[in-house]
Design goal:
By secondary structure, the protein is α+β, with helices and mostly antiparallel strands. The protein has three helices and ten strands. Strands 1, 2, 3, 6, 7, 8 and 9 form a seven-stranded mixed sheet that branches. It has a three-stranded antiparallel sheet with strand order 5-4-10. A hairpin with a 5-residue loop joins strand 4 and strand 5 (58-59).
Length: 173
């Protein structure tokens, strides 16, 4: 077990104090405690895929798990629904353990799973809450995502940029 300090963020979201602590792979939480699954999804050229519900606020593609769904299946479904893209290769990176407090009361702990994925874009025909998709560099993503000076986002971008350099090109995985 490492004695290194955990990577964490502390911020205010929707009036609640939030502490997010990074839990690296291979560890996974109980599936019932995972509220969200999202991916740092790259195209063949190494650009990162972002989605937006209003054309101004950007997010990683992802969302909530359906009953009985595995994390990998959630990512594939959400990328298909939100970004009109297909996931080829993917790797589980880890998760964020989320501790929230509202009105001085601790809320139940939950998790947000994070993946690296290589995607192939299909023609964009939005059918759900997303109205726009965009391919950006990792540096642009850090500015557009609105996570501020997030140590977790910096770690994820560093980790996925390394995976991108080593991942084979020329196919879906």
């Amino acid at each position: 077990m490492s004695s290194a300090q955990p990577i964490q963020d502390r911020f205010i979201y929707a009036g609640r104090t939030v502490l997010a602590v990074w839990c690296p792979a291979p560890w996974r939480p109980e599936i019932a405690l995972v509220r969200q699954c999202s991916g740092l999804c790259f195209d063949e050229a190494g650009h990162l895929l972002l989605v937006s519900g209003d054309g101004q606020h950007w997010a990683l593609p992802g969302g909530h798990l359906e009953p009985g769904e595995a994390l990998e299946d959630t990512l594939c479904r959400e990328v298909r629904e939100e970004a009109c893209a297909r996931v080829g290769a993917m790797a589980y990176l880890g998760c964020q353990r989320i501790h929230e407090e509202a009105d001085g009361q601790a809320l139940p702990v939950y998790y947000q799973a994070r993946f690296w994925a290589r995607v192939v874009l299909d023609p964009f025909a939005p059918r759900h809450e997303i109205v726009q998709r965009r391919l950006v560099t990792p540096d642009q993503a850090a500015r557009l995502l609105g996570w501020g000076e997030s140590p977790i986002l910096a770690h994820l971008l560093s980790l996925t940029t390394g995976l991108e350099r080593r991942a084979p090109r020329g196919g879906e995985g």
